[in-house]
C-alpha cells in the first residue's frame, strides 16, 4: 500500500512490480542478479480520484504511455529492495507533482523608469559602437 496523501492511498494490486536485470557495467553482480525494478501503474484502472487521473493523463511525460500506464525503471541501487523503494517514491512524487496547480501569469507593463534605463543602455551601446568606426 502506497500512501499519497491523508485521504489518497494506492493498494498493492494497482502497482505491478517486476524484477529485471540492471543495464550497464557492474561485473558479476549485474550479470547474475535481477536487482532493477520495473514499475507499471495503470492510471485509468486505478482507484485514484478523478481529479488525480485527469491531471496525470494530461501530463506530457515520457514515462506515461498512450494507454495511460506509468512506467518507471529503478536501477540506481545494488539491492532490489532499495530499487523498489526508489520506484515507489518516484511514483508518489509524480502523482503529487501532477496535482500542483500552476499560478496563472498576468502580464504587466514595464515601469517608465525601466523603459528609460533600457533606452539609455541602448544609446550607450550605440555610441560605443559608433566610436569603433573608420577614422578620417
TrEMBL record:
Q: How does it assemble?
A: Associated with 70S ribosomes and polysomes.
Q: Which PANTHER family match?
A: PEPTIDYL-TRNA HYDROLASE ARFB
Asked whether the keyword Cytoplasm is assigned, the reply is yes
Region spans: Disordered? 102-136
Where is this chain compositionally biased, Basic residues type? 103-136
Catalysed reaction(s) here are: an N-acyl-L-alpha-aminoacyl-tRNA + H2O = an N-acyl-L-amino acid + a tRNA + H(+)
EC main group: hydrolase
For this protein, the record's InterPro entries field holds: Pep_chain_release_fac_I, Pep_chain_release_fac_I_sf
Q: Which GO terms describe its biological process?
A: regulation of translation; rescue of stalled ribosome
Its lineage reads: Bacteria, Pseudomonadati, Pseudomonadota, Gammaproteobacteria, Vibrionales
Q: Can you provide one Gene Ontology molecular function annotated for this UniProt record?
A: translation release factor activity
Note the superkingdom of the native organism. Answer: Bacteria
What is the protein name for this chain?
A: Peptidyl-tRNA hydrolase ArfB
Q: Which family does it belong to?
A: Belongs to the prokaryotic/mitochondrial release factor family.
Amino acid at each position: 500500500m502506497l500512501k499519497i496523501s491523508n485521504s489518497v492511498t494506492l493498494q498493492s494490486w494497482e502497482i505491478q512490480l517486476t524484477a529485471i536485470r540492471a543495464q550497464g557495467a557492474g561485473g558479476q553482480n549485474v550479470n547474475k542478479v535481477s536487482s532493477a525494478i520495473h514499475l507499471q501503474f495503470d492510471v485509468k484502472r486505478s482507484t485514484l480520484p478523478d481529479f488525480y487521473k485527469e491531471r496525470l493523463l494530461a501530463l506530457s511525460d515520457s514515462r506515461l504511455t498512450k494507454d495511460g500506464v506509468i512506467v518507471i525503471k529503478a536501477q540506481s541501487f545494488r539491492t532490489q529492495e532499495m530499487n523498489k523503494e526508489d520506484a515507489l517514491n518516484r511514483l508518489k512524487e509524480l502523482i503529487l507533482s501532477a496535482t500542483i496547480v500552476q499560478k496563472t501569469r498576468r502580464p504587466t507593463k514595464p515601469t517608465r523608469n525601466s523603459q528609460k534605463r533600457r533606452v539609455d543602455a541602448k544609446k550607450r551601446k550605440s555610441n560605443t559602437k559608433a566610436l569603433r568606426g573608420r577614422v578620417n
